[in-house]
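Chains adopt folds. We examine one example:
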Amino acid sequence: MNIYLFPTELEAAPFRVLRPTARVVISGVGLAATAATLAVLNREGSLMSSRVVLAGLAGAYDERVAVGEVVEVVRECCAELPERFRCNYCVAPTTTLRQVGANSTHRGAVGVTDAEIENMEGATLFAMAEVMGFEACEVRAISNRVGEPFERWRTEEAVEALARALITIDDGE
């Protein structure tokens, strides 16, 4: 059974329409909110029998990653930590989506590592999965180029593409 973890209801809403019976959890934005939500799910006993699919928007550093494209993140890094403390997380792909690396950041536009995209939660998912032993997958829809003003983001297009892509990995629940 999949648990679909979204940072915001905005990101989750189109998927809820397509899969009203799916287990959707809103984690809140950022590393700490995601860790807290995963801790609650662990306490409930939900994680050991489920795959957690973290799904949301992301910004692209790399021009080869198109706005509107949906990707699977297989490498994550807490980009704002000094290099000597930075943890890099790698997971095996679980979808047929294009595979990319990401920086998790809370302030944006942190151009370190070899990441193609950035987000605000992914490294927490992979760190918690590693420690707690649950299966994890991260799927992101590209809404913008890193550093673009919010008015230029293509949020609606990205969340619709995200919902359609999640259906292809849905476990039929």
Remarks:
- The first strand starts at residue 2 and ends at 6.
- The CA atoms of residues 23 and 75 lie 25 Å apart.
- The chain has a mean pLDDT of 89.
